[in-house]
Amino acid sequence: MNINLVGIGLGNPELLTKAACNAISKSDIVIGAKRIVDSIRSDFVGKKFFLEYNTEKIANIIKSNAGSEISVIFSGDISLFSGSSKLFERLKTFKNCKINTFPGISSLSYLCAKTNIDISKVKILSFHGKDELLYHNIGSNEYTFIITSNGEGAKEICRKLISFGFFDLDITLGENLSYVNERITTAKAWDLLDMDISDLNCMIIFNPDSEKAISFGLPDEVFARDKVPITKSEVRAVILSKLNISSDSICYDIGAGSGSVSIEMAGLAYEGKVYAVEKNPVAIELIKKNIHNFNAENIELIFAKAPKGLEHILEADRIFIGGSGGELNAVMDIIFASQKHPTVVITAITLETVAQISDILKQAKRHGYDTEMTAINVSKSKEVGPYNMMTAQNMVFIAKLW
């Protein structure tokens, strides 16, 4: 049984590739969502059409028509946010089924071609049934392509951009691409809010300052901190390098203080999650301010004294302990029970805590961890009249378990 998974492009039948056209022509049955089928129905008379987009229902139609050649058609390209991937996996369970794939022209490639944008520079997001982290992606990518859910969804993204301070960025909005009522507009977020936007739309956001983004080690001055201690920039940079956070990491910041480490964790784990645990109510308010100021949508703030507030710690793969309120051993007992064998970084400035960490490192080795201890001593310049002198900060001991 031949099953053809066909990307038909954006909807204009003139953009259907010759190979895709031949595959549909040879098929006895064509299956697809109503809008997609309607766009090609008149060009392929004599076919039996089924209007369906649900993967399992499509699989049942195919089962019921064994022996027929069948084309399942999808909008755009079958490799970009397509239901084709799920159906492909489902069809692999069928016996004597040959799956043929036919790419189409995606809204991404079409809009990039129309606006002379190099597609290799574009970060791809979808807000169609998804909740993406917009701030990080816009801030760190020159071009960000977004498929929205509808016209109001496009306006909601514009409102978010304005709230993030990205109100001066150019947005190229593509509506009804390839159709006779196609419209491509480049404007600021404010301008798009006043437009009547089609539900069939996508956009590319251009950020010329994306290369200026700092990966980690932000200046201390950018954080709201009041009188709550902050992990200093240089020390924070070493901590984050030791943690080696991935984009999808699940992180814990225990004893989060003013939240500087949590904020930078959130930027690195932009597809993951950060749990910030803090017991000081004054610090909690500062963390809230920093979460708002940095639009750190993936931080969950937990007002508790560890080991309380660690309900999700067994899911974590990166853990920083900057303060445990005297409960370091209790916290480590929970971490050692984790099957994920997370990377843990602990800091100390007192010799008593260093002695406690030394015992923990011995336990860690018995649990199969590798360990290391680093001591860093940072001095920063300070103007004294016409001169500059170096002022030493506290020595910080950094333990790593992995």
From TrEMBL:
The protein's UniProt keywords, in alphabetical order, are: Cobalamin biosynthesis, Methyltransferase, S-adenosyl-L-methionine, Transferase
Q: Where is the TRM5/TYW2-like methyltransferase domain?
A: 247-322
**Residue ranges annotated for the Tetrapyrrole methylase domain, each copy included:** 3-189
What is its pathway?
Answer: Cofactor biosynthesis; adenosylcobalamin biosynthesis
- Source species, domain of life: Bacteria
Pfam families the record matches = TP_methylase, TRM5-TYW2_MTfase
Signal sequence span is none
Instruction: Quote the EC number.
Output: 2.1.1.132
- Methyltransferase recorded as keyword: yes
Determine if Lipid metabolism is one of this entry's keywords: no
Q: Which InterPro entries match?
A: 4pyrrol_Mease, 4pyrrol_Methylase_sf, 4pyrrole_Mease_sub1, 4pyrrole_Mease_sub2, CbiE, Cbl_synth_MTase_CbiT, Cobalamin_biosynth_MTase, SAM-dependent_MTases_sf
MF terms from GO for this chain are: precorrin-6Y C5,15-methyltransferase (decarboxylating) activity; protein methyltransferase activity
Which terms does the UniProt entry file under GO BP?
A: cobalamin biosynthetic process; methylation
Return the broad EC class: transferase
Protein name per its UniProtKB record: Precorrin-6y C5,15-methyltransferase (Decarboxylating), CbiE subunit
Q: State the encoding gene.
A: cbiE
